[in-house]
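Final report, closing paragraph on structural work. Over the funding period we assembled a curated collection of sequence-structure pairs, and we close with a single example.
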Amino acid sequence: MLIKFAARLTVCFALTSLCTSLSAAQQTTPPSNADSPSQAQGQAPAAGQAPPLNPQPPADKDKNDPAATGSANQSGTSNDRLFKVLPNFLTLETGGKLPPLTTKQKYAVVARGTFDPVQYPWWGLLSAINQADNSEPAYGQGWEAYAKRYGTTAADSITENFMTQAVFASVLHQDPRFYQSSSGGFGHRSWYAVSRIFVTRTDSGHSQFNYSEIFGAATAAAISTYSYHPRSTFISTPTNPHMFVGSDRTLLNTANVWGTQVALDTVTIVVKEFWPDIRRKMSHKHTGEAGISAAAASKP
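Its predicted structure, as stored:
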């Protein structure tokens, strides 16, 4: 479990560090007037000079495109993906009050993200890490053990997602969506994102303690630990044909799973807060590269 947690945390902190550098670069590097798209469009071409073959569209052309941003679509969710891959359907860039999600909508969007095709290889990677770490040694080694670890990893993810974002959110009438701040400095925005683990919106738009995250994650940890994770057993090893392995169904293990999941959710929310900055930086980079290519192609 420690290696799996370290691997997840390393990835999340790497993404957070990237967010920090991009945010700082945007705040400290002023735009160049000479390269300003609006200025270039406002100037007429010199005499005898052909106009650009491929004038660049405005940089914010996709602001109203829910698929390209975290803006809400008609269902009150988004079609956004972190780094164009990871489902991010419950994150919205707008801070305004939106119509509450119905119970059916909450379950539907959680199912859409949980069973997204990218999740299956992700579960496979985590299972391989568990296998290398010999997590839950009662499973042993080999392909059969890997299959068991894959099943428990997938079940853990599915249970936690539905408990925190669908079951508890529906029963307690809480909004499972994350509303990005996108204002203030890095410290302010980071603190805002971390605080969303403990504070959320109700369906009516009021602030409330995030029972869905805290108690939903605890319930998911208890269900997974005491239902399908291995009991105590004897396994055969090259050095000990009758080695006793203690049960993973303990209160301490439940607490560890709960704490690990809440910590990972916290780091993930921080990454989600800064994802719009990364996306805009990537978009501007691609726009600049396209402009350079067009200029080069127009030269005789």
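Strands lie at 81-82, 86-87, 91-92, 178-179, 199-201, 207-209, 233-235, 243-245. Confidence is low (pLDDT under 50) at residues 1-7, 9-68. We thank the funder for supporting this effort.
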